[in-house]
Write a structure and sequence with these properties.
By secondary structure, this protein is α+β, with helices and mostly antiparallel strands. The chain is built from four helices and six strands. It has two domains: about 130 residues, Thrombin, subunit H (Beta Barrel), CATH 2.40.10.220; about 55 residues. The chain is about 40% helix and about 30% strand. The longest helix has 25 residues. It is globular and about 55 Å long. The termini are far apart.
Amino acid sequence: MGNKITTINELSNRRQYFRVEDKASVEIAALPENHSAAEFFDLNPEFGLISEFQLLDVESKHLLHAVTDKDKNLGQLLKVFNMKLDSLSRVLALSHQAMSKENVQDVNLSEGGLAIHSEQQFKTGQLLAIKLILLPTYSGLLLEGRVLSCSKKNTPYELNIEFSGISEAHQQLIARHIMRIQSNKKHPTKK
């Protein structure tokens, strides 16, 4: 079939996802049928804390705007409290989260999948468990994916993975991360 998608770039173009070159901590493992990604990684309770807070931010954003429209001071106070909670959650997560430096690598990330380098070869169509930590926010995501392609032009293998069964909330989290990275590249002085 001539229309088969084999790379994350083709997937992003076909589905009109934004994508970004970034650094992230990535761990992958072959995922047997009828198993979940959570079974393959050592996870502490704080692993998803930052991600959960960011998802709550998305859900409450319109409420914060409504409060700010009625009372600017109260809106600003709530924003400060939110930033304090974000900082606290980051400290908690980082103090308990084991993230080895060898797992941090360059990634090509979109809402639909990612491309990474892997020392291990995987078969096209193989299911994978993915532990992804987005930097610098340290948002932790447990995802499942399917290998689009695994080619060895150089060492290591170039692995293209399409996320499967990804929740809308996790897609939104990745989309916000991509927008933040793109905005920082356009306006480097903004944080």
